[in-house]
Protein: LLM class flavin-dependent oxidoreductase
Organism: Pseudonocardia xinjiangensis
Amino acid sequence: MLGLFLPLQTGGWSQSTLPRGTDWTFAYNLELTRRAEEWGFDIAFGLSQWLPMGGFGGETGYRENFLDPFVSAVALASATRSILLLGTVHVLYGPWHPLHLAKFLATADHISGGRFGANIVTGYAGNEPAMFGMTRPEHDKRYAMADEFAAICEDLWAGADNLTFHGEHWSLEEAYVSPRPAFGRPILVSASGSPAGFSYAAKHSDIVFVSSPAGEDFDTAIAAMPAHVRSVKDAARAEGREVRVVINPTIVTAPTRDAAEARYRAISDHADLESIRNFTGRHAGGDSRSWLEHSARGRAVGGHLHVVGSPADVADKLARLHESGIDGVQITFYDYVPELEFFGQEVLPLLEKAGLRVPREAP
Ligand SMILES: Cc1cc2nc3c(=O)[nH]c(=O)nc-3n(C[C@H](O)[C@H](O)[C@H](O)COP(=O)(O)O)c2cc1C
């Protein structure tokens, strides 16, 4: 599967000042999503973070502006035809109730003609729950809460009658959602790196976004990948389910390997160190283990994994990810519009030749 990680926020995923056209605006993301769809991409969605004034700051004002990814995904769904849109939502902030999400997703399913899902996240950052007047529940408890939340949504979508349920965290009296999703249960997605997260995903998720367990360097990461992917898939099989495992690489490619490596160095050399310090500080205050192995400097390029090289190198690395058990990539670029275009023209035909993508006409 090919996914595009939309830059709905200032600076996308890369904390670098090297000039580029990447933009958080809806118009820019609409153009990108339509173009990704024309290239045959399967998924588009964005990240959800709650940040104080100025985002992560620095020269780039990293993530200062941040469109809501759920609302954006619904709007993008109504302006596209075949690509799957995912709305990211922190289900534990608020008071969010499962009945809200069940209704919203059923509605998005109708708007999109069955091309909508939710990326359910539980929130690892320390300061985010405080913005909602809450204290962050302990890590594994969050997944127990999300488990009850998702199970209620599933019952609302599938149950034949009004739902009355009194759980540990949520209660419903005679609750019902109509219309039901037109095409069965909406796609459920989660992003995890821990046993509790994988066990939640095993019960509810169709797609699991994993992070690199060994940092952003490709060769180090790929060595650790088969065991990591297997642990997610085995957890799902123990529940009698299959999940697809997707990872987020930043791809830096150019006509030759030398040119791609030079570009990679240029992005890194323009690292926005102040915003990187603030980003690293936030992660130190969170309880996600996803970024522990990542270098601060690697944040200038961003993404969970760096895939750098000529189109042939990139196709080869994506093939190696596939061999390691990965089912798809959620791609981030530095300068989205031209780099998506170059990827479509130069890398996609190689993926088709390698049997990793179904051949299709270039748009
Ligand atoms: C591809 C990907 C996308 C993610 N998107 C979000 C997001 O939008 N918002 C968020 O708070 N966390 C997001 N996360 C973080 C995860 O929800 C999770 O907190 C993190 O991977 C740590 O895993 P754990 O909760 O199993 O420890 C994302 C992680 C990955 C790998």
The mean pLDDT is 95. The two ends are 18 Å apart (CA to CA). Residues 218-238 form the longest helix (21 residues). The domain at 2-353 is CATH 3.20.20.30 (TIM Barrel).
